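User: I'm putting together notes for a lab meeting next week and I want to include a structural view of one of the chains we've been expressing. I don't have a solved structure, so I'd like a prediction I can at least talk through. The sequence is below, exactly as it appears in our construct file.
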Amino acid sequence: MAKLYYSRYHISTGKDLTDKLDFILTGLRNDASVSDRGFLYKFFNSEIVEFNNVEYVTGELVKYNPDDSEEVVDDDTMTIKSESIHNKVVARARYIIDPTSSILMHFDVPNVISIANFRQKFSRLFEQNHDNFFTEFSLSPIKEQYSFIEKIKSFKSVKRISITLYPSNPNYADRWKDIDERMRRVGIEKYKETQETKKPNASITVDNDTENKFLMSEDGYGECDAFGITENGEERLISTKDNQKNINSNLPNDMNKALDILLNVSETLKEIVKRTSK
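Assistant: Thanks for the context. Below is the predicted structure for the 278-residue chain, given as structure tokens.
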């Protein structure tokens, strides 16, 4: 089975976002590529598909080798020789974007394009396709609700909490509505907060406001890290960027057409959207 992961994308730009769909397509259809350890990454086959009266953008993040070789047989000389192969495809990872909810779904390719690698390459390519002109793109995983809060409650003491949040686009959840509205009201595009104590026997109290910020990040509008001491006396760092508790769907390995994928994950997608349906 193949795993489809769900993230929220965040765009900060000085460009005009009146036509959001066109802006997204520009980020996916221009000719930028990213090089990493001899391989190239690039977007291919970006297009619009319609499902249940909603327009989605889909395509593939492709990893390929610009100069490879392969052994072939030469029947005439009865020998085996090496032939050059230009731009050999190594892996393809399908993505689907819902511009109305800022949700991006994507596959990973185990041992070839990891979840973290996909997010990093996707963000860099999108920014480069906009010529890096005052455009910042990032992806935050959508987690199971309350999963990060449950983890942090297992700490005997909490020593440091780091929070990064982005304003919602377009909807919010009741628990973090006030946080979101304040960010919008004062013009914050990216919010950062650090809570820390270095006193040996002290622990940060996770109050309701901090919990709400955790929930906002679990809905895909940011990331949170926490460092603390477990009941066993071990130091531990936890993060919403960890792959544990990420929402994902198991699909057949040969399922790669966007409409087939959307049909199979429509209920999961509805549940995610309902979390921020205000």
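A couple of points you could mention at the meeting. Helices lie at 20-29, 115-129, 147-153, 177-185, 208-218, 258-275. The CA atoms of residues 270 and 277 lie 10 Å apart.

User: Perfect, that's what I needed.
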